[in-house]
Amino acid sequence: MGSQNHPDQSPDSSAEGAPRPEPSRRSVLYGAAGLAGAGLAATAIAGTLAAPAAAASVAATPRARPGRAAGVPSPAEPVIVHVRDLRSGEMDVFAGETTARLRDPDLAARLVHAVR
Amino acid sequence: MSSHREAPEISMDPVADSTDLYAFVSPDRPNAVTLIANYIPLQAPAGGPNFYQFGDDVRYEIHIDNDGDGQPDITYRFTFHSRLRNPDTFLYNTGPIAALNSPNWNSRQFYSVRRFSDGGGTGTELGKNLPCPPCNIGPLSTPNYDKLAAGAVHDLGRGIRVFAGQRAEGFYVDLGAIFDLGDLRPFENLHNQYGMNVFSGPAPGVNATNQLNVHSIAIQVPIRELVRTGASGESDPKSVIGVWTTASRQAASVFDAETGKTVSSGPFRQVSRLGNPLINEVIIALGDKDRWNALPPAGDKQFAHYYAQPGLAAALPSLYPGVFPNLAALVKSGKARADLEAILLTGIPGGIIPGFQNNTGSVLSDMLRLNTAIPPSGSPNILGLLGGDLAGFPNGRRVFDDVVTVELRAVAGLTFALVDPSFTPDSAASAVTDGLTDASVKAPYLNTFPFLGVPYSGFDNPS
Fold first, then answer.
1. Which residues pair with B263 in a beta bridge?
2. Is residue A71 part of a domain?
3. DSSP characters for B185-252?
4. Among candidate residues B436, B459, B451, the one with its CA nearest the CA of residue B210
5. Residue A23: is its pLDDT beyond 80?
6. Of A69, B15, B155, B295, which is the most buried if we count CB atoms within 10 A?
7. Residue that wins the pLDDT comparison between B4 and B287
8. How far is CA B20 from CA A63, B3, B259, B325, in A?
9. β partners of residue B250
10. Pick from B34, B70, B35: which is nearest to B360 by CA?
């Protein structure tokens, strides 16, 4: 079945207006209010996580069905980290449409130190 | 609004809050099924300057189970994106909106539709960049609104049509009385009134959703696209589909104070669910409502006790002393309500109602079950099966069906005799109602897709 596009209505045309502004990478380093209730929630850029994550235990959680193949994050997308338990270093990392659970007490401690 | 603001979490999130779900064989195209999922409850028509829109960050889905396992075999996913032509004006529109591509229309919304099979893969794109109509503002901003909105019915090919946008609320219910401790105005003089003697006689029902709007996602699909191969006739289990709608959000969100916007990330997680009307509203207890919204129908066995012993059935005899003696005895006996389990969790098997079944097997799952082989009625009865109309609720649900009265009467014991012939329903069980009918809806239903009426304009409503 062919997809039906409506070029006369296309939102991709500059004449049709600009998309609503996307947040900058820097901007998402702030504000973690949405997750604070269940533990420490923080945001971080991928580079910050890369080295510790390599040494940490990582478990990707199943994605919701349908659409299992979707959701590889792009470099422009925010990465959100939810530290579920500071002592064990258990944390969920959210990026694109994926999530992974890490266990890295050192990284958790560094994240907390960065916001205190 | 049979599921409006029905659970603590979703009541805080209107754009993801499913309010009503309809599924019926289309009277305008009897070889097709119309599916309508409504969201964003209780819209006051004069909603400017930021008129109602679907959530760009919400994934809206309509699911079809055609093999009885309570899992989706087919999913239609709708995703929206909003665009501003001019972010430097405060106006939704800067002149009359005479067409969907009017340069006067500043704040617009578009959507994509994808079809998934067996709950996986990337799906098939059915349409993209499909314009929603504007909200109905008034005679200056949206003249000829019905024609304008009709232009937002999109033909996607292969017999599939879609519409997504504002509609008049078609569901009618006396919310104000019902949630005032179970008052039913036509019988309120019989209410125990907690000894206060507030009501001296019966009163007509009041439609709490009168002159309010909702946002509808409607899709019309050929029956052959929804049922299993080889479906044949109303007695064939393959003719029956189960339908439900969900809304999902990404798992993590933070508020970015620099932009004043919320940023989301992670996998989509279900936050809203709706199959049969009024279930999470009045059957599921408060402590389980949020969890019910986050689960698929396949897991509904864990909630079966709510259907088997509904709190409303236990409440009616005490709220209306002496009116429901047989229901009181039934409740006291502790017998499970096999009638409600069949109607709501498995579908009605053959042999109970002549010429009818909508059974999907033994898996307990709250889905709106539609026997697609039963044609539309030429003279519909808003009481559906209870009124002898096999094409109405709980065989699917049409936009005008009186699901409040049907479920009130069922819970009051009227349908228990179907599974236990020794039970005699109270005479009140066949009379109880909140006092409303489809005539309580001011905006006329449409005879053709998308069937729900033209939304009330902010200029004329409230009036």
1. B254
2. yes
3. GGGGGGS-GGG----SS------TTTT-EEEEEEEEEEGGGTSPTT--STT-GGGEEEEEEEEEEEEE
4. B436
5. no
6. B15
7. B287
8. 27, 6, 34, 33
9. B268
10. B70
A84 torsion bin: left (phi>0), alpha (psi -120 to 50), beta (else)? alpha
Looking at the domain assignment, is residue A15 inside a domain?
Answer: no
Of B254, B258, B268, the CB nearest to A97: B268
Backbone phi, psi, residue B397, to 5°: -160, 130
Tokens, residue B434: 């909140």
Of the listed ranges A62-71, A78-87, B436-445, the least confidently predicted one is: A62-71
Q: How far apart are CA B13 and CA B206, in angstroms?
A: 26
pLDDT at residue B239, as a whole number: 98
Helix/strand/coil (H/E/C) assignment for every residue in B390-421: CCCCCCCECCCCCHHHHHHHHHCCCCHHHCCC
Residues 6+ apart with CB under 8 A from B260: none
Distance of CA B107 to the CA centre of its chain: 27
More reliable by pLDDT, A34 or B142: B142
User: Taking the model in full, what pTM does it have?
Assistant: 0.89
Q: What is the pLDDT of residues B37-84, one digit of tens each?
A: 999 999 999 989 999 999 999 999 999 999 999 999 999 999 999 999
Residues 6+ apart with CB under 8 A from B298: B69, B70, B71, B363, B365
Length reported for chain A: 116
Q: Where are the domains of chain B?
A: 10-173+209-440
Please name the member of A18, A28, A80 whose beta carbon is closest to the beta carbon of B266.
Answer: A80
| Nearest chain A alpha carbon to B101 | A9
User: What confidence score (pLDDT) does residue B303 get?
Assistant: 98
Q: Quick check: B421 contacting A, CB < 8 Å? A: no
| B251 contacts A34 by C-beta, under 8 angstroms | no
CA dihedral B200, B204, B206, B207 (to 10 degrees): 160
A59 in a domain, yes or no?
Answer: yes
* Structural domain includes residue A10: no
How many domains, chain A? 1
pLDDT surpassing 60 at residue B124: yes
Chain A CB contacts of B266 under 8 Å are 80, 92, 94-99
Write the pLDDT tens digit of every residue in B277-318: 999 989 999 999 999 999 999 999 999 999 999 999 999 999
> Mean pLDDT throughout B146-160?
98
ipTM of the complex: 0.81
Q: How many residues does chain B have?
A: 463
**What torsion, rounded to 10 degrees, do the Cα atoms B238, B240, B244, B250 define?**
10
- Cβ contacts (< 8 Å) between B125 and chain A: which residues? 3
Q: How far is CA A56 from CA A51, B127, B439, B455, in A?
A: 9, 43, 64, 55
- Residue B303 class from Cβ within 10 Å (0-12 exposed, 13-18 middle, 19+ buried)? buried
Range of the domain at A72: 25-114
